[in-house]
Design goal:
Elements (H helix, E strand, L loop, with lengths): L1 H11 L8 E5 L4 H17 L2 E8 L5 H15 L4 E5 L6 H19 L3 E3 L4 H14 L12 E4 L2 E4 L27 H14 L5 H22 L8 H6 L2 H13 L8 H12 L4 E4 L4 E5 L4 E5 L11 E3 L3 E5 L2 E6 L9 E5 L5 E5 L5 E3 L4 E3 H7 L4 H5 L2 E5 L2 E7 L2 E4 L10 E7 L4
Parallel strand pairs: 1-2, 1-4, 2-3, 4-6
Antiparallel strand pairs: 5-6, 7-8, 8-9, 10-14, 11-12, 12-20, 13-20, 14-17, 15-16, 17-18, 18-19
Helix pairs in contact: 5-6, 5-7
Length: 427
């Protein structure tokens, strides 16, 4: 009966209306084998032809048996099968990235327009609970979507409204790693969720419904704010603070792999709300740039050794130079820095390479850079890559061989700004 109900649900939601060639991700476990048998049974009625995509992670002896069985099953049922082999250091994230890259490559090469996976309601509930425990933002509690864009087509999950226990059962393989409590999801599945279910027997369904409701809320927000040009400062600042908060979340979510911590996000939002023009480094080589009319978050393109003319750094701006990032600001930076240099003037700072005759004032004496390097046994290669900071015609710091030498401030000097320095390789 459940098999027929799932088929009716697929038809009602027209999951395959725009698809003819459908690729099924099959691990060999109970859920994916149920999906494979179901779509193989109804492929004529659904108007689709199916193929199998399987990844052998090479982590268990049984992996070879699973692959052999699936190959034999596919040959017997005259269904194409594509097998990928994971290699390298195994982690859950790397394995997942490999699988979906493999699936996308098969879709493109063999012209499949849909990838289908066997995620069900229990998976959805586990995902939402995991993200709640990890402190994820509200938008990420939307969990797994039944249909989303993927590769050159769509990723479809027709089991999401069904419990695992409701799926039809077929011959399958058990993965012993599913009982390994070193994996967070396994602890959620086998310990935390069953314990919480004692308080609410409908908890799995409730968590799944929370995910669906948040997904609808996200869709409503996007619809209502679609006409707002987010990066236009005038338009952004016209919005209520609550709208600004989620507009900025949406904007950042579309930028590569930029995952800001909550404190960093709050700093960016404050800078925008106070229209603090300037360039502010974030993380991963990204920077926030604010001017009179717009703001953007983009990668800072580092200068090469062939293009290292002196750089003039004004207040609230940043630059990369010879493997380091420099940020001149009146505000705390959005990420940790290795060194902070106090500035006793708000005039521009010039970042440059060493020049003949350079010297630095240490208060009771002034020392030529050449003598400084000799006295501190600085290697010749390090001397060639020394970075000089100059302000108001005076050398204020020297960065060489991982050490920073600072000009001695006068007794009457008052710190007005700060120059933050971070080694790019550490970000």
């Amino acid at each position: 009966m459940m098999k027929q109900e799932i088929y009716q649900y697929i038809v009602k939601n027209a999951f395959f209306k725009n698809h003819q060639k459908v690729l099924i991700a099959v691990s060999g476990g109970a859920d994916s084998m149920a999906l494979l048998h179901l779509l193989q049974c109804y492929q004529t009625k659904l108007g689709i032809s199916i193929g199998i995509a399987h990844v052998n992670h090479k982590q268990r002896a049984a992996s070879e048996d699973e692959e052999a069985y699936l190959r034999s099953w596919a040959q017997k049922n005259q269904i194409p099968i594509y097998v990928g082999y994971f290699s390298g250091l195994f982690t859950e994230q790397r394995a997942r990235d490999f699988r979906y890259h493999f699936f996308a490559s098969i879709m493109e090469k063999e012209q499949y327009t849909a990838l289908v996976t066997a995620h069900h309601m229990d998976d959805q509930a586990e995902t939402v609970l995991m993200r709640l425990i990890r402190g994820s933002r509200l938008r990420h509690l939307a969990g797994i979507r039944p249909v989303q864009a993927f590769a050159s087509g769509e990723l479809i999950r027709p089991f999401l409204t069904f419990r695992k226990k409701e799926l039809p059962s077929y011959y399958h393989f058990e993965d012993e790693s599913n009982s390994d409590h070193s994996y967070f999801r396994n602890r959620i599945r086998q310990s935390l969720l069953p314990e919480l279910t004692k308080e609410n027997p409908q908890l799995v369904k409730a968590l799944s419904e929370v995910a669906s409701e948040i997904s609808l809320l996200n869709e409503a927000f996007h619809y209502l704010t679609a006409d707002i040009p987010i990066t236009n400062m005038a338009s952004f600042l016209q919005q209520p603070a609550a709208i600004q908060y989620f507009l900025l979340q949406d904007y950042i979510a579309k930028i590569g792999h930029l995952n800001l911590a909550k404190s960093q996000f709050d700093t960016v939002l404050t800078l925008l709300q106070h229209h603090k023009c300037g360039t502010y480094p974030l993380k991963g080589g990204y920077a926030l740039s604010i001017d009179e009319h717009t703001f953007t978050i983009a990668k800072i393109i580092p200068k090469t050794d062939k293009d290292l003319s002196p750089i003039v750094l004004n207040c609230n701006s940043a630059t990369d130079y010879l493997g380091y990032q420099f940020f001149y600001s009146l505000f705390e930076p959005c990420l940790a820095y290795d060194t902070m240099i106090p500035l006793y003037s708000l005039s521009s700072v010039t970042i440059r390479r060493r020049q003949a005759g350079d010297s630095i004032n240490f208060g009771t004496f002034t020392k030529k850079l050449r003598r400084l390097f000799i006295d501190n046994k600085i290697p010749q290669k390090a001397r060639e890559r020394a970075i000089i900071g100059e302000q108001n015609g005076q050398v204020i710091f020297i960065l060489v061989n991982g050490e920073t030498y600072l000009r001695k401030a006068a007794n009457h000097d008052i710190m007005l700004g700060k120059l933050y320095i971070a080694k790019i390789e550490k970000r």
